[in-house]
Amino acid sequence: MLLKRRNRFSVFSSKINTSSYINSLCNSFRYHDISNVTASGYWGVDFIKKQSHLDPQARKLLQIPSDYIPSLKTGYRFFDLNDLEKAATLFSLCSKGESFKTEIKMKTFHGKAFYARAQGKAIKNEQGNIIGIRGVFQNIEEEKKQELRLQKSLKHTEKQNMWLYQLSHIVSHNLHAHVCNLQLTSKLIDVETLTKDQEELVNSIKSISHRLECTLEHLNTIATLHSTNKKLQYIVVKDLYQEVIQKIKNSNIQQRALYYTEFSEVEVVKYIPAYLKNILFHLIKNSLLNKHPERECEINVFTYEENKKIYLVVKDNGIGLSQNKIDYLLSKTQTGYSYVEDESGLGIFLIKSQVEAMGGTLLIESKLGKGAKFTIQL
Question: Which residue numbers delimit the PAC domain (predicted)?
Fold first, then answer.
């Protein structure tokens, strides 16, 4: 038996006498050892002698009686009817020199079906003529069953997730009208005619309705992002920024601020547009809502590249965050909550989830009274 040594591994030469190769292979202790450990059976066809060969492990996998002699004419019986044409095609191509590696449904001698991982390769003589084919196959029935169970479980989970997202969209849509009515009603109340206790009650209602509106907005964002196109696209950052600013102008957010932008270092990024738009919107929104009462709000938005990584930064001069609050926001044990809307439980969580889903990171740097800086590695 000829062996070629390549990269510390022994591979069988394909330019050999078919019968002597098969016999020596089957008598090899090392071969038997590997065959038993991997539960792989060897098969071969000698075109010169018109003989088929199955090693002991192959006969065991196919549950073939000891007195049964395999042949090309009866080979079809070991393949499932639905994969019979596939087997014939692969055999034909292999006999012409094209190797194959596939998963196929086979049958035992007694008709019990099982999934197998099979591969085959042509055998050539020293003149380069094809004189046979050889290969191995392995029973992967249990592996395939596990794979099918996982696929079924995944489909079930996806179906449940879709139902939950649809439910969140319906709930947020239906409740939004009631929240708007509550806010409008509270605004129509003339607080000057109220007692101090009544005024505090009305202000409490306004605060509650505002927070509820924020929560519904986040729920709607989740549903919208779930249904959007998840394909990466090239995005002109300046154009996306303008869309976000327009969205903020169309909202009821207090928007008086000085904006400073710089996108010349990185003008275009490859990202999911809906994700990046949502991230930028919420960061700028938080900067506006957390502006310092004693100074005009300033917001810096810029991009830069460092060590072949691209970053998007939103920096403000607002009220800032304590280190404990930052640690809490980024804690893996927390579900996350917004920079300003602690009760909503979704603001930073949404941003962090989307950034990490894209393989990036979120860094928060801040001091109380000194503003906050959010750095996104895209």
Answer: 100-152
C-alpha distance from residue 17 to each of 11, 49, 261 (Å): 16, 11, 74
Residue type, 277: K
Q: What is the pLDDT of residue 19?
A: 52
Q: What is the pLDDT of residues 324-377, one digit of tens each?
A: 777 777 764 444 444 444 433 356 777 887 788 788 888 888 888 888 899 999
DSSP output for 213-247: HHHHHHHHHHHHHHHS----EEEEHHHHHHHHHHH
For each of the domains in the chain, give its residue range(s) and CATH number, in order of start: 3-139 (3.30.450.20), 146-227 (1.10.287), 229-378 (3.30.565.10)
DSSP alpha helices (H): ranges in the chain? 18-26, 29-38, 56-61, 84-95, 141-188, 196-227, 237-250, 273-289, 323-330, 347-357
Q: Report pLDDT digits (tens) over 204-244.
A: 887 787 777 777 776 666 666 655 556 788 999 999 999 99
Other residues' Cβ atoms within 10 Å of the Cβ of residue 355: 20
3-state DSSP call for residue 15?
A: strand
* DSSP β-bridge partners for residue 378: none
Pairing type for strands 3-6 and 233-236 reads unpaired
pLDDT at 229: 58
What number of CA atoms fall less than 13 Å from residue 172's CA on the CB side?
A: 18
Could you tell me the pTM of the whole model?
Answer: 0.50
